Amino acid sequence: MTSPEIGYFGFTDGGCINNGKKNAKASFCSISIDGTNKYIIDGLVQPNKYYLDEAEIVFDENGKIINISTTDTPYIKIDNTIKIDNTIKIDDIIKIDNTIKINPSSNRGELLGLVHCFAQLVCMGLNKDMSNNYIEVYTDSLLCVNTFNKWLLTRQKNNTTHKMKNIDLITIADIFFKQLKLMYKSAELLHIKSHQPKPDPSKGTKELFIWLGNKQADDHCSLVLK
């Protein structure tokens, strides 16, 4: 008998104070939900180039990730919400290059949120048969949605990805997004409008669920910046 289809969900956001200025301070948040638990990662965007330490990742002969060194990361669990320990988390494989400075921005916060969300969802699916499960990741950044659903594909075909702004974060996110598409039945990056009125529960629980996820990601970004 085929196992039931299960949805995995992600919500990401980025925030920034003094966006576009030298003293900009940006934040990110990633929320990943597997039906039972909620994994939350948030923090400040560092003023540096980010890169993926692939020495900590094991790929099979088909290019599929089969192990990541941080999959045994200890979690702090309160009820059904899991807050990843900021001293260990996925920063073990997503690192910064202190020699290259890049000013924090709202867009970099949005992208770093996606990086962590995609990476966390990959970790959640490692060594499991996820071929009958699907993923929906929601962001209120239309720029991010268009980047991964449209523009990046064209840039890759034309070998012009090096001309894209924030290509360091885009490259990392793309690696994990492609892994999600290999691991799961489907993986979609979807847009949600920010700061909308709370949906009427009578219209359906999923609409309210998505609204709450987006709001929580936004709230975390704001708290990090305080």
How would you spell out the order of helices and strands?
EEEEEEEEEHEHHEH
As residue ranges, the low-confidence spans are: 71-88
Distance between the termini: 51 Å
Query: Percent of residues in beta strands?
Result: 25-35%
Counting helices, strands and paired strands, the structural category is alpha/beta
What's the Cα radius of gyration?
17 Å
CATH level 3 topology: Nucleotidyltransferase, domain 5
Number of domains: 1
Broad CATH class: Alpha Beta
Annotated CATH homologous superfamily: Ribonuclease H-like superfamily/Ribonuclease H
- According to DSSP, the number of beta strands is 11
Biggest sheet architecture: 7 strands, mixed
* Average pLDDT for all residues: 87
| DSSP helical segment count | 4
Order of strands, main sheet, comes to: 7-8-3-2-1-10-11
Would you write up a description of this structure?
The protein has 226 residues and is an alpha/beta fold. The chain has four helices and eleven strands. The strands form three sheets. Strands 7-8-3-2-1-10-11 form a seven-stranded mixed beta sheet, sandwiched between helices. The chain has a two-stranded antiparallel sheet with strand order 4-9. A two-stranded antiparallel sheet has the order 5-6. Helix 1 runs parallel beside helix 3. It is globular. Residues 71-88 have low confidence and may be disordered.
Short description:
This protein has helices spanning 106-125, 142-157, 167-183, 205-225, and strands spanning 7-17, 25-33, 38-44, 48-52, 57-59, 65-68, 75-78, 81-84, 94-101, 134-139, 186-191. It has 226 residues and is an alpha/beta fold. The protein has a 7-stranded mixed sheet, sandwiched between helices. Strands 4-9 form a two-stranded antiparallel ribbon. Strands 5-6 form a two-stranded antiparallel ribbon.
